[in-house]
Amino acid sequence: MEFNKFNINEKLKDKTNELGFKEPTLIQEICIPEIIKGKDVVGQAETGSGKTVAFCLPLLDKITPRGGIQTVVLTPTRELCVQVTDVFKEFGRTLKIKTTSIYGGVSIVPQIKRIRRSEVIVGTPGRMLDHLRRKTMDLGEIRFLVLDETDKMLEMGFIDDVEKIINYMPKKRQTLMFSATIERSIHRLMQRHLNNPEIIKTKSQVDKSQLHQTYYDIYQQNDKFSILVHLLKTNKDGLAIIFCATRRECDVVEKNLRVHCIKASAIHGGMNQNKRMKSLNALKEQKTDVLVATDVAARGLDIKNVSHIYNYDVPKTAIEYIHRIGRTARAGENGAAITLLTGSDHENFRRVQSNKELNIEKADIPEFKKVSFSRKMDQEKKPSQNKHWNNNQSNNINRNYRQGNKTSNNRTYRHWNNNQSNNINRNYRQGNKTSNNRTYRHRNETSKKSH
To answer: What Cα–Cα distance (Å) separates residue 184 from each residue in 43, 151, 193, 354?
Structure first.
């Protein structure tokens, strides 16, 4: 089947040809006709299956240019928000449909301006709620709602925020839900907010015959990083993704890899948006060979040409393991999923191995060179204590203002006066009577000179 067979705007078809889309993926082939018919849809599909295009094309076909906000797409992470926005912008440009992304970590003011001119809003739940409470966004005329990576959204604790956002929308709308897994919590969400949905499940994009899964049982904890460096320098084909359990571990591993001349970038939720986007752009422009990431930050990102997955920290469940390894061995290409196992990882690894469909073989530890590894992170220059206090003061004033509490600088004056009183008392104890920052002794001396 070809995209030309779909009953969508000719300009969208021309754009698919221009971008090199030859044949639709399975999720696109099944979902697009159902969405065109106006049905609610639940699609189970992995990252990289083409699901964004599966809902983007039919929704753009239904949106009226300059008709106000008509579509909302909710995503769990900022990176996925930006990625989905880029797809809508690319295709929507031909129809003069505007899309804006709404996420935290950046100024809210430019977002407010762009919202007024957009027909599609792609956002993370927290910042979406912020706009709704400020009344800078009206969802009263929403016709289409998409919940992307729903399982991850619920796993991250966004269920209450999602429910609140939905309550701002009209009940009569078309709702689409896409998720890597469909668990009990997702079924409950479906029952509350979807109307007799079509449930579409697609097969894994990973070719298991092309995917080699191994693990190394490492006796010495300190050898873990040395073995990682050895494997990275031995296997140089394609892009490698290293998964770590925490943000700090991501930073530590990335920094140490760079020390050993391995081009690496980190991405996790603790980084500011500029740094996160810099890491993603370095990947797209092939300026880096290794991405060090947490599960949350990497979820939903379509990263191509991944040849190796390294579990530096073992995931807690088989489902997370499957999500990780699903980024390689695609489209007939070979791939490798390598788990570095130390004593503290065995409990998690037993949970992973409880899935009998996984075939993870034990590999012999290769000969490797021990390399240095430091957990000391470079400390950024700390601001002065006064500046820190002033920033906190400013943040508190802004926060109170947003909550409807009028604030003044009384707190600042009181802080200054307290310091002033302390100085007076200190000088008095030292034998210097003070008043208004001048000592009586100084005033008396001046008086004598004038006489």
So the answer is: 15, 10, 15, 20
**Which residues lie across from 99 on neighbouring strands?**
120
CB contact at 8 A, 331 and 352 = no
Euclidean distance between CA atoms 150 and 75, whole angstroms: 8
Residue 56 sits at the vertex; the CA angle it makes with 54 and 57, to the nearest 5 degrees, is 80
User: What's the chain's Rg over C-alpha atoms?
Assistant: 28
Quote the tokens at residue 141: 């005329």
Handedness of CA 98, 104, 106, 108 (dihedral sign): positive
What's 381's DSSP letter?
A: P
> pTM here?
0.69
d(CA 270, CA 105): 10
Q: Please count the residues of the chain.
A: 451
H/E segment holding residue 383: none
Dihedral (C-alpha) 315, 54, 131, 66: value to the nearest 10 degrees?
Answer: 170
Q: Which two three-digit tokens encode residue 42?
A: 């639940």
Q: What CATH class has 208-362? A: alpha beta
Other CB atoms closer than 10 Å to residue 10's CB: what's the count? Answer: 9
- The Cα 74–Cα 148 span in angstroms is 6
pLDDT in tens, 283-308: 777 789 899 998 865 666 777 788 89
Nearest Cα to Cα of residue 149 among 133, 166, 165, 162? 162
What one-character DSSP code corresponds to residue 95?
Answer: G
DSSP track, 123-168: E-HHHHHHHHHHT----TT--EEEE-SHHHHHHTT-HHHHHHHHHT
Tens of pLDDT, residues 68-114? 999 999 999 888 999 999 999 999 999 999 999 999 989 999 999 99
Secondary structure of residue 102 in the 3-state scheme: strand
Domain 208-362 in the same topology as domain 3-201:
yes
Q: Which residues of 394-433 are buried (b: 16+ CB within 10 A; e: fewer)?
A: eeebeeeeeeeeeeeeeeeeeeeeeeeeeebeeeeeeeee
List the one residue out of 60, 26, 241 whose CA is nearest residue 146: 60
Query: And the tokens for 47?
Result: 């990252």
379 phi and psi angles, rounded to 5 deg: -85, 130
- CA 392 to CA 125: how far, in whole Å? 26
Q: Where are the chain's structural domains?
A: 3-201, 208-362
Give kind and range of the element (H or E) at residue 59. Answer: helix 51-62
Instruction: Pick the closest to residue 267 from 241, 287, 286, 285 (CA basis).
Output: 241
Architecture of the CATH domain 3-201 = 3-Layer(aba) Sandwich (3.40)
Do the beta carbons of residue 65 and residue 113 sit within 8 Å? Answer: no
